[in-house]
Design a protein that fits this description.
Elements: H1 3-20, H2 23-46, H3 54-70, H4 72-80, H5 84-112, H6 120-134, H7 136-145, H8 148-168, H9 173-187, H10 200-218, E1 231-238, E2 240-242, E3 245-247, E4 252-254, H11 255-261, E5 264-271, E6 277-278, E7 280-286, E8 289-295, E9 299-300, E10 307-313, E11 322-330, E12 335-344
Parallel strand pairs: 4-12
Antiparallel strand pairs: 1-5, 2-3, 5-10, 6-9, 7-8, 7-11, 11-12
Helix pairs in contact: 2-5, 3-5, 3-8, 4-5, 5-6, 5-8, 8-9, 9-10
Length: 345
């Protein structure tokens, strides 16, 4: 039996079964989406305890890269030769793996995102990609209409994953961001082809050019991307700090109390991967205007409950009433978190 005849037989058999059992049409339309969602949730549960599963995470990422990118040409050749069933199985496998990866990344980026800042837009983009890969009819339409979107999605997923992975190897968050952009473009080398006969050197050259472009573009927009996996675990204004614990934490305060305290203390605890050292700053603002930028001791990762640190401001001006905030920033102005205080007259 030829391949084409076998495919026709499979399609005819499925059509007869679907005519007898109407629920199979639902399975045909939504079954993959349901399976992809369940697989993603399972992935999320497996990795729920976080970065201790880093080797598994890297293995999962390599599997996705191998099936989705390294075999990109093989997948296209299967479809061209009429082996659509095998090609569809590979495509669905890629979709399911990719969806599981995005679901794993979402809570990590959510923990590092300041929802009242511009870096929330990256989290929204990540969530949109996860939704697209979960709903099979949408994913099919987008892939058929805009085939290059699949490559963009893969590049985005690889970048978002590596941006989490490199700090676990003790690379500071901003340099991890740039390095992730470069490596994700180089990893897409098999997809950079111009014509069937394009050489590997040509593909590697094009991937390298895009790597440089992406690295240059990432630097000015670094503040729009959460500094994963850094996250603010505790943050408050307080009267003072004793034994690295805040005394009398507050979110509202009167001018008289501020004067009695002779200043305000901003206390923060930041979780980071073990072995990572990251310089940070407290940027004090009053009514949106910067009044101080205070360098702190570099955070040291792996501390239970996060690395605890604080800054204190005693010169609050003749009228301290207003809206105060402190931004926790990395050395290259990436926002880790923000705390607010209202001083009433």
């Amino acid at each position: 039996m030829t391949t084409a005849a076998w495919h026709d037989m499979v399609r005819n058999t499925w059509a007869k079964l679907a005519a007898r059992l109407p629920w199979l049409r639902w399975v045909e339309k939504w079954g993959i989406s349901t399976g992809s969602l369940m697989s993603g949730v399972l992935t999320l549960l497996v990795f729920r305890r976080g970065m201790e599963y880093f080797p598994w995470f890297v293995g999962y990422l390599l599997l996705l890269w191998l099936v989705g990118v390294a075999f990109a040409q093989v997948r296209q050749e299967l479809a061209t030769r009429g082996r659509r069933v095998i090609s569809m199985v590979v495509d669905y496998t890629v979709q399911t793996l990719f969806h599981g990866l995005l679901l794993f990344l979402l809570p990590i980026y959510y923990a590092s995102t300041t929802l009242t800042s511009r870096n929330v837009l990256f989290l929204i983009l990540l969530a949109a990609a996860a939704i697209l890969t979960a709903i099979d009819p949408w994913y099919k339409v987008v892939m058929l209409q805009f085939r290059r979107i699949e490559i963009l999605l893969f590049g985005f997923g690889l970048f978002a994953s590596l941006n989490v992975a490199f700090p676990l190897l003790r690379v500071q968050s901003t340099w991890a961001l740039i390095l992730s952009g470069i490596v994700s473009m180089v990893a897409l080398t098999p997809a950079f082809r111009r014509g069937v006969d394009a050489s590997w050197w040509d593909r590697l050259f094009r991937a390298g050019m895009w790597a440089v472009i992406v690295a240059l573009l990432l630097w000015p927009v670094r503040g729009w991307i959460p500094p994963v996996p850094l996250q603010l675990t505790r943050a408050t204004f307080a009267k003072s700090v004793d034994r690295l614990e805040p005394e009398q934490p507050v979110s509202n305060l009167s001018v008289d109390e501020v004067r009695t305290w002779q200043g305000i203390t901003a206390y923060t605890a930041i979780a980071a991967p073990a072995g990572l050292r990251e310089p940070i700053y407290h940027v004090w603002r009053k009514d949106g205007t910067i009044v101080a930028k205070i360098p702190l001791s570099p955070i040291s990762g792996g501390r239970p409950g996060g690395f605890r640190t604080y800054s204190r401001k005693t010169d609050l001006g003749p009228n301290p009433a207003g809206s105060w905030s402190v931004d926790v920033l990395t050395a290259h102005d990436r926002l880790v978190g923000r705390i607010r205080l209202v001083v009433t007259p």
